[in-house]
Amino acid sequence: MNFTSVEFGKSLVYLPKSTVEIINNTSATFSTGDIITLKIILYNEKGDVLTGGGEFINIWMSEKGKGAGSAGYVVDHGNGTYIGVIKALWSGSPNITIKLAFPKESIGLFVNHIYRNGMLRPIFGFFKNARGEIGKGICGIHTLTNHDLCDFTSFNYGMRWFCSLPDTPGFICTDWFRTEGDTKADDRNNIDSKLSKTQKFLLR
Predict the structure, then answer these.
(1) Adjacent-strand bridge partners of 163
(2) Sign of the CA dihedral 58, 43, 203, 11?
(3) In angstroms, rounded to a whole number, what is the distance separating the alpha carbons of residues 132 and 142?
(4) Which InterPro entries does this UniProt record tie to the protein (predicted)?
(5) Where is the domain boundary, 102, 137, 171?
(6) For the whole prediction, is pTM greater than 0.85?
(7) Tell me: the pLDDT tens digits for 112-122?
(8) Each residue of 179-199: pLDDT tens digit?
(9) Rounded to whole angstroms, how far apart are CA atoms 127 and 134?
């Protein structure tokens, strides 16, 4: 397999000097099943390497002619350098795309907004116990409750996440099986009214 190119998505245009290189095979030729490892270095508009991590980066491989695609994962080293890992799942000449899903400034604004104003909409964790009973508890990044809490941070890529157990006794944290948001309570106009123009731009 020879992949044709590596490109940055449109969301990285504000970091135009960013670079990417293959670090485990300089020939860019791989066999099906091989792991492709990419070193991603983010630079600011002045050409300086970003000194911190926190950017949320996605990586995927695709080939339009075959309708094929697969996603990889990215490791943040906390110093402006990231490692992208993706597996070659088919033969051909695919393209690898790297996209900045959320800049750390956007993530910071989002988290700060939640701490000040609460979740943008109610989110519930659903639990099913050994007797087949189903209950739900409120979820979020806060621990401001006296109710029994389940710490699901490890399931949320290391970012704080908690769900309270249902009010009905007889449930434990391992009974959790899904999370669901209350879309009926999503008042976008009320949310936007609390944001500045810059915050709206970064959170859009």
Answers:
(1) 139, 150
(2) negative
(3) 29
(4) NXPH/NXPE
(5) 102
(6) no
(7) 777 676 666 78
(8) 888 656 544 445 455 555 554
(9) 6
